[in-house]
Amino acid sequence: MPAETYQLLIGGKWTEAASGERFAVTNPATGEVVATVPDAGAEDARAAIEAAHAAFAEWSALPAHVRARYMRKVYDGIMQNVDRLARVLTEENGKPLAEAKGEVINGAEYLNWYAEETRRVYGEVIPSSSRKTRIWVLRQPVGVVAAITPWNFPSSMITRKIAPALAAGCTVVIKPAEQTPLSALLLGEIIQEAGLPAGVVNIVTTSQPAAVGKEFLENRLVRKISFTGSTEVGKYLMQGAAAQMKRVSMELGGHAPFIVFDDADLDAAVQGAVISKFRNAGQTCICANRIYVQESVAEAFTERLVEAVRKLRVGNGFEEGTSVGPLIDEAAYRKVEEHVSDSLSKGARVLTGGHRLTGAGFDRGYFYAPTLLDQVSDDMRIVREETFGPVAPIMTFRTEDEVIRRANDTPYGLAAYIFTRNLGRTVRVSEALEYGMVAVNDSLLAVPQAPFGGIKESGLGREGGHHGLDDYLEYKYLSVVLDE
Predict the structure, then answer these.
(1) Is 230 a domain residue?
(2) Which listed residue, 41, 141, 356, 385, has the most CB atoms within 10 A of its CB?
(3) pLDDT, tens digit, for every residue of 303-319?
(4) β-pairing, 459-460 with 247-251?
(5) The domain containing residue 34 runs over which residues?
(6) Which residues form the Aldehyde dehydrogenase domain (predicted)?
(7) Residue 285 appears among annotated catalytic residues
(8) Cβ atoms within 10 Å of 299's Cβ, excluding its own
(9) Is residue 484 part of a domain?
């Protein structure tokens, strides 16, 4: 089949890049080219920003219930096209089709939830110091938002950003990851069909993200940048945004500890570890990166986890029964291999996996066997750096104080997991962990109604919940002297 062709969405129109250049999107499971998209540059980004700026006055002035009506139309459009969106997501990202479908549905819920929140952007009346004066506080949209989204959740990461932005009255320019631009462009089709005013949502695809990112940073019409991706790139964007004091929200890297105490339900802990670690082949910012197990239950837990991991089926996301898909590209595979090699050179032992999968069905993709390591020490790269792959190191601990200290010994602070049936321990450990999110006897954190985000070098701001609106709104203080 010939590859599909897509265009940029700028100012309500589908268009080619100014350069006329295009780039290919490949399936990481097969290496096949599934589509080509325009290769936008700074000129295209500028046009998209100007279109968003032109649309801002109209969109921000719409009554809240009208914006909500548009957002629900987009939600309905996504839900009517779930199967198509999921298939394209699996083609460009590789994750199992069931996971892709779950992502599309979860992402759509952010639009549904924030459509309701449009009505709750409240202001304040503050008691004045004078009988003649009134103090009013308004909350107004920040303006044009540049949203930069990652490849690991190419659908839901977009809706998580545009939903609060649209609810607040902002307009948006989206730059999806170069590996996975198709989900964004299909969402653009649904937005067009929903009838949103031209320029409210714009989409630029590019294989040269530095040039587009530079335009986002330097163009004064952009008032906020929302980014999900690596801590390294997040720091670069934050430094650049400082030149104009642009608003930023950042959801960056993580290195989640997964802590199993001796009173835990071990079967639930094993199931939670598998879901957290191996979803999307371990390519999630909140996946379990370090598994700490209390010594007295370490052997029993490890045996059950090894058994569960060996049952995982690796393969093409379109194949029935596949539970783990490929890594996104060669660079991702190399990083996983380097972490495993470093661990083995320093004394770690492979309990299962530990190698690239080859042979029929695997040779053209980036498949790595789900892997567990033990005899792991804190000086190994896998304990210090984010692996972003299907590899989990297992370590033991003796006391609460010890595991809290080791869990916090990282510059990251996104998510942490605890398995225990002791309420006192739940409170003590949750409060002591230096993370923006803590899951207790749970392994799934991203829901529309809760604030998703990290602390330390894992980011700034929150996505989800009423808290997610704050990053898209400014406070305006009015001091009004009344006529006599």
Answers:
(1) yes
(2) 141
(3) 999 999 999 999 999 99
(4) antiparallel
(5) 4-252+458-479
(6) 14-477
(7) yes
(8) 11
(9) no
Q: 369 and 344, same structural domain?
A: yes
3-state DSSP of the chain: CCCEECCEEECCEEECCCCCCEEEEECCCCCCEEEEEECCCHHHHHHHHHHHHHHHHHHHHCCHHHHHHHHHHHHHHHHHCHHHHHHHHHHHHCCCHHHHHHHHHHHHHHHHHHHHHHHHCCCEEECCCCCCEEEEEEEEECCEEEEECCCCCCCHHHHHHHHHHHHHCCEEEEECCCCCCHHHHHHHHHHHHHCCCCCCEEECCCCCHHHHHHHHHHCCCEEEEEEECCHHHHHHHHHHHHCCCCEEEEECCCCEEEEECCCCCHHHHHHHHHHHHHHHHHCCCCCEEEEEEEHHHHHHHHHHHHHHHHCCCECCCCCCCCCECCCCCHHHHHHHHHHHHHHHHCCCEEEECCCECCCCCCCCCCCECCEEEECCCCCCHHHHCCCCCCEEEEEEECCHHHHHHHHHCCCCCCEEEEECCCHHHHHHHHHHCCCCEEEECCCCCCCCCCCECCCHHHEECCECCHHHHHHHEEEEEEEEECCC
Question: Catalytic one among 285, 287, 386, 463?
Answer: 285
What is the chain's length? 484
Tokens of 279: 């979803």
Q: Which of 50, 99, 251, 463 is catalytic?
A: 251
pLDDT tens digits along 251-295:
999 999 999 999 999 999 999 999 999 999 999 999 999 999 999
Predicted TM-score (pTM) of this structure:
0.95
Note whether 289 and 382 are same-domain residues: yes
484 vs 165 pLDDT, higher one: 165
Distance between CA atoms of 313 and 417, rounded to whole angstroms? Answer: 25
For the cut 60, the answer to whether the pLDDT of residue 1 exceeds it is: no
Residue 251 catalytic?
Answer: yes
Task: Give the full edge-to-edge strand order of the sheet including 133-141.
Answer: 124-126, 133-141, 473-481
Give the CATH number, domain containing residue 358. 3.40.309.10
